[in-house]
Write a structure and sequence with these properties.
This protein is mostly beta strands. It has no helices and eleven strands.
């Protein structure tokens, strides 16, 4: 069964850090682009970051550039999103999605997601 499972969310103070994990089962994640869209309560889903298949490029939305880092560990079939200097506006449910490329990863089906709450 093909599945992506997010983990690593939680409550963190402004300026803090979290590392989200996206573990794949049932397929080799390195052949796909993996994106992290997010959705805050009452807001539209938005792009955060995406890593292309293989050694392809990485993409970040402007508001998270420098603060967030996306990476792969092919041996663990897992993609990570390291989030530093978190801000209250980063509060949202974060999803990981597998796509053929990073062009439209914000669209399409989502998994259960992981809640990130940035608050003092």
């Amino acid at each position: 069964q093909v599945q992506l499972l997010e983990s690593g969310g939680g409550l963190v103070q402004p300026g803090g850090s979290l590392r989200l994990s996206c573990a794949a089962s049932g397929f080799g994640m390195d052949y796909y682009a993996v994106g992290w869209p997010r959705q805050a309560t009452g807001k539209e889903r938005e792009r955060v970051s995406c890593i292309s298949s293989g050694d392809g490029p990485k993409y970040y939305t402007e508001s998270v550039k420098v603060r967030f880092t996306i990476s792969r560990d092919n041996a663990k079939n897992t993609v990570y999103l390291r989030m530093n200097s978190l801000k209250p506006e980063d509060t949202a449910v974060y999803y990981c999605v597998g796509r053929l490329d990073c062009s439209n990863y914000v669209f399409g089906p989502l998994g259960q997601g992981t809640q990130v709450t940035v608050s003092s």
